[in-house]
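We modelled the chain as a single entity of 404 amino acids. Its sequence is:
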Amino acid sequence: MDNSAATTPTCEAASMTPSVSEDGTAPEMTEELDKDLGRLLPGPTLRGSQLGLDGKLKGELIYITTSQEFDMVLCNHDSKGKARHFFVSSEVLRLSSPRIDRELVLHAGKWRFQPGKVGEIRKVYICGCPEHSRAVHLCDYSDTDTLRRLFQILHGRSDTSLLHLDFHSVARIAVACERYECYQAFLPWKHIWVEKYWKNMLEPGYEDWIRIGEIFEVWETDELMGVLANECAYNYSHRNGVCGTHVLTRGGKEVPTNLWSQLSILDFIERRKNKIGRLIRVLKELMEALDPGNDICSLSLCVSLAYGSLIRSIKQEGLWAFVELGEPWVSSATELKEKLGRVKLHTYRDCEGTHNCPITLLKEKYEAYMKWGYASGTIVNWKSGGAPSVVVSSVALQSNGGCC
């Protein structure tokens, strides 16, 4: 496609979104647009029905450059099918976005213009969105504001409003930046946004740092993933009977993961699974150790009392179906840890204060694990012939994110 006549955009900002009438037409732009089309299109043979225009554009008109500078219109449809037309510079987009450059090359090969007798003609692609219209279409369901801000940055026409974007807008722009492969243009804004929202990373509502970190190469999001693996409930549900959906909730509110990569979802699932596995393994080890057949205490009354009180406490906490029947745990690892921390067992020492046996040590170590946690994830050392003493180190606590 010939872009030799495209003018270089100036630094003046000019982004305008005219109001759209009920039928989707922007009437106040009709006269100016007709003039632009008459100036830019290669001759009258490409006017009217051949362009799918019928003298007007339907949808939202968004000027990224001035009406004197644009040489291309990108057409995009939102998730509801509404058309949006972005008046842009093809030269700017070719240089800043490899993906859009590829789209333009493919389009030029499919729809070849015939300049006719006109000399140098700046080309504009317009879409009235009928079948086979001559248009450059973006298959992108991003919201209008995200695409507008993206194109403004690429054209060097950003304004101070980008300094005050909320976190969710930043996340959407970051994903659009990745989609259109235009990282270099976003470097100054990347540093501004990272500095602004870095301190909030671990707070609820900022979970999309998982995705932003991947795009902007901020790798210190590992701590956030550890926190989410502890604090988030998780369920894999089939919504609307169509396909499975990963549903994460944190503090009773759903965590949106639509921007997350599949690798991040799998990382979360694996970490959460490991944390829950360590917790439940400790409880099952305790149950196995207290099995009457193990003769862990010479006093059978003590063993029976400990084992029976443990099973009763597990059932009181509503954990029996999870522990023994294998039902999935959909609540958070933190909630499971709290419930396991309330699981109690009694020994003969509770009746006779002078009684002492390995069960007492097991009880103390189990309680310590549920309170502080430590790296080994085990409370029974069978080779030593009993329960080892309780040892809790700061290194061990750190390795488990302070939960399990």
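As a brief sanity check on the tokenised model: The two ends are 60 Å apart (CA to CA). Confidence is low (pLDDT under 50) at residues 1-56, 113-123, 382-402.
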